[in-house]
């Protein structure tokens, strides 16, 4: 849900209401605002994919993206090539 240029996230849960004979007579719909939790989760994912010192995307981020891409290639076919450079020993 987007309201006033602000995204909000809700968890929606449906529960049935039964009478004494066990027949369904209605529903209870519960909306829980989980926006704070989702925002925090996104921040944590961002922090987990960046090196704290250099502020560059880290190996974990690369491996997740590479694995997702390889799965696409397996499912749909295609060719790929990976070239990696280790710049840790590089001096300017």
Concise description?
Helices cover 35% and strands 25% of the residues. By secondary structure, it is of the alpha+beta class.
What does this 3D model show about the protein?
With 92 residues, the protein is α+β, with helices and mostly antiparallel strands. It has one domain. Helix content is 35%, strand content 25%. The protein has helices at 35-48, 59-76, and strands at 2-3, 6-7, 10-18, 24-33. The strands form two sheets. The protein has a two-stranded antiparallel ribbon. Strands 3-4 form a two-stranded antiparallel ribbon. A hairpin with a 2-residue loop joins strand 1 and strand 2. It starts with a strand and ends in a 16-residue tail after the last helix. This is GGDEF domain-containing protein. InterPro entries: DGC-Regulatory_Protein (IPR052163), Rev_trsase/Diguanyl_cyclase (IPR043128). It comes from Priestia endophytica DSM 13796.
Shape: elongated
The number of domains: 1
Number of strands: 4
Q: Strand order across the biggest sheet?
A: 1-2
Largest sheet: 2 strands, antiparallel
Distance between the termini: 49 Å
Q: Percent of residues in helical segments?
A: 25-40%
Question: Could you say which structural class the secondary elements and strand pairing correspond to?
Answer: alpha+beta
Rg over alpha carbons: 23 Å
The DSSP helix count reads 2
- The parts where pLDDT drops under 50 for at least 5 residues are none
How confident overall, as mean pLDDT?
87
Name the beta content range: 25-35%
Which sequence of SSEs, written as H and E, runs from N to C?
EEEEHH
